[in-house]
Amino acid sequence: MLDIFVQTVPFFAIIGLGYMSGRSGFFSAEATAYLTKFVFYFALSAMLFRFSANLSLSEIWDWSFVAAYLCGTMLIYVLATVVAMVRRLPVAEAAVEAQVAVIGNVGFLGIPMLTLLLGPAAIGPNMMVLAVDLIVFGSLIVILITGSRDGRIQLGVLKTVALGLLANPMIVSIALGLTVSALAWDVPKPVNDFVVLLGGAATPGALFAIGASLASKSAEKLSVASWLTFCKLVLHPVAVAVFALMVFTVDAYDASVMIALAALPVAGNVYMLAQHYRVAPQRVSAAILVSTTLSIVTVSVVIALVT
Fold this sequence. Notes:
By secondary structure, the chain is an all-alpha fold. The protein is 82% helix and 0% strand.
C-alpha cells in the first residue's frame, strides 16, 4: 500500500498545488473556469480520442462488466435516495445527493491516474465506466430534477438530455475515436502528433484544475457531506466489488479497475449541475472538498487491495 501511495502522491501534489494557487488568489476563479474549459473541451477530448482510436469497441465492451458496475452503482444510488427521502428532502435534492454518492472524478482523475498506475489496459474499463456515468446517471439526474419541477416527465426533457449527450465533448471524442478504429483509418502523422501534444496537457491541467476549483468550495453541512463521502469512497467500491467478483463474471483485471474507479472522489461536474439547477450546491461543494481530501489515503488503499 505504501508503494501505491507513493505513486499517487504526484497526482495529489498537483491537485494541492492548484488548491494553494486558488486559495492564495494567484489563480482566480475566472482563470480556473477557463482552465477547466480548456481541459474539458480540448486536452481531455484529445486524450480520449487518441485512446479510443486505438481500441476496438467489440474488444472493450463487456456486458457483464457494464451490468456489474451499473448494479453496484444503482444500489448505492437507491440507498442515498432512500436516506434523503427519509429526511424528507424534495425529489430534486434527493437526486443530487444520490448523484454525489456514486459519480466519481473518472474523466479528470481516473483516466490519467489509473492508466499510469495500472497500465494502458485500464483505458477500456475507464471508457466503459465513463460511458455509464455520462449516459445513464448523467441523464437520470436531469430527468428527475426537471420532472419533479414540472410534475411529470415531458418529451422536451428527453430531447434536452439527448442533445446534452451529443454535445458532450467526452462522448463525442470517444465516438469519433471508435469510428476511426472501426473503419481502420490511419490517422495522418501531423494529426496524430497534434492530438498527442494536446492530449499531453490533459493530466497536469485536469489535476491542477481540480485543486484550483476546490479553493472555492466550502465545508458547510459537514454531517451530510460526511455521509455522502462515506457512500462514495467506501460503500460504492464495496458494492461494485460484490457485483463484479461475486455476482457477475468479470475479468479480474477489469474488475480491479472498476473498483478503483468507484473509489474516486466526487466529480466536479455534479457541482456544476447542482449550481445550474440551483439545487443544494453548497452541500455538493462540501462533499467534493471532503471526499477529495480523504481520497488521498482511501484511493491508495483501494488500489493496493485490488492489485
